Structures are given as structure tokens and as C-alpha cells.
Amino acid sequence: MTMTTSKESAVAEFRRLSDSDPEIQAHGKYFSCSFLWDMEEKKFLIRMHRGKVEDLIVDPEPLEAYDFAIRASADTWREFGRPTPAPMFHGIWAATFQRDMRLEGDLLVLMQNLRCVTRQIELLRTTGPLV
Predict the structure, then answer these.
(1) pLDDT in tens, 67-86
(2) Residue 87 domain-assigned (yes or no)
(3) Nearest of 131, 96, 121, 128 to residue 24 by alpha carbon
(4) Looking at the domain assignment, is residue 20 inside a domain?
(5) Cβ-Cβ contacts under 8 Å for 20 (sequence gap 6 or more)
(6) Chain centroid to CA 94
(7) For residues 131 and 128, what is the distance between their CA atoms, to the nearest angstrom?
(8) What is the total count of domains within the chain?
(9) Residue 36 has what pLDDT?
(10) Distance (Å, rounded) from C-alpha 92 to C-alpha 75?
(11) pLDDT, tens digit, 9 for 90 and up, residues 80-126
């Protein structure tokens, strides 16, 4: 698991922003789950507990457990991380219907935490793409 310094700082900044985000904290009292962002070139396992990032694992082992996964090409995730994403890259539903994004696993858990997960994806516009 080797990352450039800028990517390491982007991951640290994402964690800091997520933990201090007023919207996530307002909605996040019950935001406790684990999910995988599969960005093709990198994978990120995010474990949340009561609205805080408990663990963020870059390129987790294949048998690491998670509740759900959001998978897309690195190009799709890069577009999500732009300050103003192109049309159909502004949200997971648009990217799922029109692009290469896939939602897998326990989608009930995703739906129960949708606003917080969506907000975390929006934070990528501040940190820049993690891939």
C-alpha cells in the first residue's frame, strides 16, 4: 500500500473533514456502518461509528467485511472529486443510471445512511479525488 504524499494528505484531510462536518454530525448519531469505495486503482474501506471515521483502510485485504460497496472506474471517481462535476457525476444515482457506478451489498444500510454517505462523497470536491 504505497501512496503519494498528496494522496496520503488527501485521505487525512477527508477524515478530518468528515469528522468535523456539521451536516454529518447533525445526521450522524446513528451513522455506524462500514462501506467500501472501490475506485478501480485504489479501494477505501471506511468504518463509521456514530458519525465519526473509526477506521479508514486503504487497499484493504480481500476478506475485510463491509456492509455495502460503491464501485466505479477511477475516471468516474475523479469526476466526482472535481469542484463542479460534469452532468451525471453529481450523485451516485445519476452515475449508477448513466455511468459505470455499481451499488452492491446491503443496500438497506446504504439507504439508512444515504445522506451522510452522499455528504462524504461531496467532501471529495474539497479534498480532491483520492485516486
Answers:
(1) 999 999 999 999 988 999 99
(2) no
(3) 121
(4) yes
(5) none
(6) 16
(7) 9
(8) 1
(9) 98
(10) 14
(11) 889 999 988 888 888 888 779 999 999 999 999 999 999 999 999 99
Query: What would the pLDDT profile of 4-29 be if each residue is shown by its tens digit?
Result: 346 678 889 999 999 999 999 998 88
Q: Helices (H), strands (E): how many in the chain?
A: 6, 5
Between CA 111 and CA 109 the distance in angstroms is 5
pTM of the model: 0.89
**Would you call 70 helix, strand, or coil by DSSP?**
strand
Secondary structure class of 130 (helix, strand, coil): coil
On whether residue 31 sits in a domain, the answer given is yes
Tally Cβ neighbours within 10 Å of residue 70. Answer: 23
In terms of residue numbers, what domain contains 40?
Answer: 5-70+104-122
> Has residue 82 been placed in a domain?
no
**Distance separating the N- and C-terminal Cα atoms of the chain:** 13
